[in-house]
Design goal:
The complex is a heterodimer. Chain A is of the alpha+beta class. Chain A has 2 helices and 6 strands. In chain A, the strands form 2 sheets. In chain A, strands 2-1-6 form a 3-stranded mixed sheet, covered by helices on one side. In chain A, strands 4-3-5 form a 3-stranded antiparallel sheet, with no helix packed on it. In chain A, helix 1 packs across helix 2. Chain B has a 7-stranded parallel sheet, with helices on both faces. Chain B contains 8 helices and 8 strands. The chains are: A alpha+beta, B alpha/beta.
């Protein structure tokens, strides 16, 4: 898995924004991660302690907001969770469906002390 | 004083930026490029070998080969008639745009019409990392089973063409083609699909013809 490079990216983005905002310390980091992005929270936490060492983010708390993978039927508009067995609409059986959430993978916000 | 700074920045935006640079460079040099993804053993190297052999009389082909270690795959591509660059990811599970950017410096792009990138065998991680190639291709294969679109939706959604390889094994393996294609169609409506066998060479011609058309569509004749 690639959590190490992902964690390094999270740190880089957080430090850049902290710097632009004259932060002395980063207290909290808010991440939004869709279930389709296949990232394991624990692995990110693990690497965080290594990559953030010696930075103003070393004691930052990581907050993971998980977004479920949701499909929407384009015919009857029913919404349902992605399962690995069936993708068709469970209500009307249609195959005209669209994934409406679950791809999210971004750094939403940080909390800093100036 | 506590301050909340709203950011909303994609965690992989740095990779996406470099991928866009790669894409511009390839466009400028009129090199059409494919990113070939698959699980280990689906037939990436075999399909690339056949593709090189069938297209190299007409086009100049370069291959970037991603592998955890070893240069077996790059050696096979070179033996088939392409110029080949090996990237050893040292255990990393995917190629990223920076690796491609570096590898492109070792390829004579002015002397290349088609660039084929062979990604690391993996159905999860390569789906998240754009490389800047023109088309993302997945090679699925019969022995993997018909449930793979359902289990790896991100991979099946992010591709522009699908090869279903090892069709010659269909009589010996329980593989429901209808179930497979249904999953593919739901996740990626209208995607072009090439059933092939690198063993019997059946179905290779439509795949080769598709690449030929893409090359012509993108750049006409470069030579």
């Amino acid at each position: 898995m690639h959590e190490l490079s992902v964690t390094e990216n999270i740190l880089k983005i957080a430090l850049r924004h902290a710097n632009e905002n004259n932060a002395k310390i980063i207290n909290d980091i808010y991440l939004v991660i869709g279930d389709l992005s296949s990232i394991v929270d624990d692995a990110v936490e693990f690497y965080w302690n290594i990559v953030a060492e010696n930075t103003i983010a070393k004691d930052a708390r990581l907050h993971f907001k998980r977004i479920q993978a949701i499909l929407q039927c384009q015919e009857c508009l029913a919404e349902y969770q992605l399962s690995q067995k069936e993708l068709s609409c469970p209500k009307c059986g249609s195959d005209q469906v669209r994934i409406v959430s679950g791809d999210e993978f971004y750094l939403e916000a940080i909390e800093i002390d100036r | 004083m506590h301050n909340r700074i709203t950011i909303v920045e994609n965690i992989l935006s740095a990779n996406d930026r470099i991928a866009a640079e790669n894409n511009s460079l390839l466009d400028k040099e009129k090199v059409f490029s494919l990113n070939i993804m698959a699980s280990p053993g689906a037939g990436k190297t075999s399909l690339i070998e056949h593709t090189i052999k069938l297209l190299s009389p007409e086009f100049r082909i370069a291959v970037i080969d991603g592998d955890i270690a070893t240069s077996f795959d790059a050696d096979r591509a070179a033996a088939a008639g392409a110029s080949a660059v090996q990237i050893n990811t040292g255990g990393d599970c995917h190629l990223d745009a920076v690796m491609i950017q570096n590898a492109l410096q070792n390829i004579d792009l002015k002397d290349t019409d088609l660039l084929i990138v062979e990604n690391v065998g993996n159905l999860i991680c390569p789906a998240s990392f754009q490389l800047g190639t023109h088309k993302n291709i997945l090679i699925a294969s019969i022995p993997e089973g018909d449930d793979k679109p359902y289990k790896y939706p991100s991979m099946y959604r992010g591709i522009q063409a699908l090869v279903l390889n090892k069709m010659d094994l269909l009589p010996y393996i329980t593989f429901d083609l209808a179930r497979f294609y249904k999953g593919v169609e739901i996740l990626n409506p209208g995607i072009i699909t090439f059933p092939t066998s690198c063993h019997t060479k059946e179905g290779l011609e439509p795949w080769i013809e598709w690449i030929r058309q893409q090359l012509i569509k993108h750049y006409g004749s470069k030579c």
